[in-house]
């Protein structure tokens, strides 16, 4: 049975891959992104597939536009079955040296952005007595990583947000789910990896972290493989709350369950080559 799926941040990357996979399986797609060229080319692809769609160019921080988009989606399709919050930006750097104004923007996009799209569509789902709210989180939403304190904090916030929402909306037939990848072979990390300046006490370890991360990306899960698993979550009637899409996230979470924190932390530090 086809769904009406709303996806934020779908012009490029895994968001686009997921949208096209869902379209080929017969689902209807609505969504937005800040990338006008990406939106235009995606619409062309969805039209060629024969997918009924509604795409727009919207900034996730523009809450008035999000509500207008919500109204357009409901008017066109009559309802929404699933909302996928996929918009997010990375943030890298030693906490001591980060720009807190830029950090605030990261929270605005990653956390308040997800909140805005969920809040917009919950009323119609509640009235219908069904729906799914799915957020792209990360392994670092469960296990903090060094030099990613702000990004980690936003993903911890997403985890807490969705787990809290779960208690409120499940009585109305609305399910919630989190997607928690560790590494997918995209350029997401490369875009944010900036070495601390010369003279920084963190520079040498940060460089080792970046080099190790770049090495791991080469053998990481592909966007297509990860997207296939995410599509299964989206199409599930009763998805699990926590969902991993790659070996690394499953492995580290398993270690978290069975090992004392001190040992798990030692493994993480060695794995990312940042032991002092």
Features:
276 residues; alpha/beta; Rossmann fold; seven-stranded parallel β-sheet; 10 helices; globular
What does this 3D model show about the protein?
The chain has 276 residues and is an alpha/beta fold. The chain has a single domain (4-271), classed as Rossmann fold (3-Layer(aba) Sandwich). It has helices spanning 13-24, 36-49, 63-77, 100-128, 149-169, 188-192, 203-217, 223-235, 247-258, 261-271; strands spanning 4-8, 28-33, 53-57, 82-85, 131-136, 174-179, 242-243. Strands 3-2-1-4-5-6-7 form a seven-stranded parallel β-sheet, sandwiched between helices. The mean pLDDT is 93.
Which helices and strands appear, and what pairs or packs with what?
Elements: E1 4-8, H1 13-24, E2 28-33, H2 36-49, E3 53-57, H3 63-77, E4 82-85, H4 100-128, E5 131-136, H5 149-169, E6 174-179, H6 188-192, H7 203-217, H8 223-235, E7 242-243, H9 247-258, H10 261-271
Parallel strand pairs: 1-2, 1-4, 2-3, 4-5, 5-6, 6-7
């Amino acid at each position: 049975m086809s769904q009406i799926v709303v996806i934020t941040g779908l012009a490029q990357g895994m968001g686009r891959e997921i949208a096209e996979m869902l379209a080929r399986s017969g689902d209807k797609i609505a969504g937005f992104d800040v990338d006008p060229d990406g939106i235009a080319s995606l619409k062309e692809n969805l039209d060629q597939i024969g997918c009924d769609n509604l795409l727009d160019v919207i900034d996730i921080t523009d809450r008035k536009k999000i509500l207008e988009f919500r109204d357009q989606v409901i008017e066109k399709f009559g309802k929404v079955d699933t909302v996928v919050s996929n918009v997010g930006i990375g943030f890298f750097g030693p906490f001591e040296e980060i720009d807190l104004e830029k950090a605030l923007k990261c929270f605005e996009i990653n956390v308040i952005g997800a909140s805005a799209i969920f809040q917009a569509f919950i009323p119609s789902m509640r009235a219908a007595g069904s729906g799914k709210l799915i957020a792209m989180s990360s392994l670092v939403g469960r296990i903090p990583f060094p030099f990613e304190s702000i990004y980690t904090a936003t993903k911890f916030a997403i985890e807490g947000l969705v787990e809290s929402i779960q208690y409120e909306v499940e009585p109305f037939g609305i399910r919630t789910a989190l997607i928690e990848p560790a590494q997918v072979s995209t350029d997401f990390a490369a875009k944010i990896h900036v070495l601390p300046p010369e003279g920084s006490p963190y520079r040498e370890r940060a460089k080792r972290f970046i080099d190790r991360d770049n090495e791991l990306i080469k053998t990481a899960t592909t966007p297509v493989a990860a997207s296939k698993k995410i599509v299964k979550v989206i199409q599930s009637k009763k998805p699990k709350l926590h969902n991993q899409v790659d070996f690394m996230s499953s492995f580290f979470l398993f270690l978290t369950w069975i090992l004392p924190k001190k040992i798990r932390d030692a493994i993480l530090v060695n794995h990312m080559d940042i032991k002092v």
